[in-house]
Amino acid sequence: MLARTEEILSLARSRTPGDRERLLLAVVDLCDVADSAEIMSAPAVQDLLNSIFMSLVVEAERDIRRRLAEKLAVVDWAPAALINVLALDDIEIARPIIATSPLLQDHDLVRLLVEATVEHQIEVARRPRIGQPVIAAILQQAEPAVLTALAGNHQAALAASDMAMLVKASRRVAALRSPLVRRPELTEDLALQLYVWVGQSLRQSLVLRFRLDPAALEAALGQAVGEAHAGAPGVEPTTDAIVWQQDDEREAMERQLIVKLVAAGQLRPGYLLRALREGKLSLFVGALATLGDFPPDMVRQAMDGDQPEHLALACAAVNIDKSAFPTILELVRSLNGGKPGGGAEGARRAMAAFGPFAPDLAAMAFRRAVGREMV
Question: Can you give 314-361 as a three-state secondary structure string?
Answer without folding.
Answer: HHHHCCCCHHHHHHHHHHHHHHCCCCCCCHHHHHHHHHHHHCCCCHHH
